[in-house]
Amino acid sequence: MFEGSTYGAVDTTVCPGDLLLLYSDGITEATDRSDEEYGAERMRDHVLQPQACAESILADVRNFANGEGLHDDATVIFVKA
């Protein structure tokens, strides 16, 4: 993606009951009107709720931004095994 960058690969096994969450920095770096970031801790707290899914994460981030809009990409991949 970036000239001179190197990337690796990792294999993992997703077992029943596991959760795999991939997201872009536009999620955790979304800000509210006071310029506070959504952050990884708020993301973790939301993901641990039983009803959590990709749509609920995006809705929570948009609600947090409170009309400020998202200033970066907002990608979420949420897999419950």
Report what the structure shows:
With 81 residues, the protein is of the alpha+beta class. The chain has helices spanning 25-28, 39-47, 54-65; strands spanning 19-23, 76-80. It has a two-stranded antiparallel ribbon with strand order 1-2.
Can you describe this structure in just a few lines?
The chain has 81 residues and is an alpha+beta fold.
Question: What keyword list fits this structure?
Answer:
81 residues; alpha+beta; 2 strands; flat
Mean pLDDT: 91
Structural class: alpha+beta
Gyration radius over CA: 15 Å
Query: Spans with pLDDT under 50 lasting ≥5 residues?
Result: none
H-E order: EHHHE
**What global shape is seen?**
flat
Report the count of strand segments.
2
Helical segment count:
3
Question: How far is the first residue's CA from the last residue's CA?
Answer: 30 Å
Largest sheet: 2 strands, antiparallel
Helix content: 25-40%
Beta-strand fraction estimate: 5-15%
- How are strands sequenced across the largest beta sheet? 1-2
Secondary-structure blueprint:
Blueprint: E1 19-23, H1 25-28, H2 39-47, H3 54-65, E2 76-80
Antiparallel strand pairs: 1-2
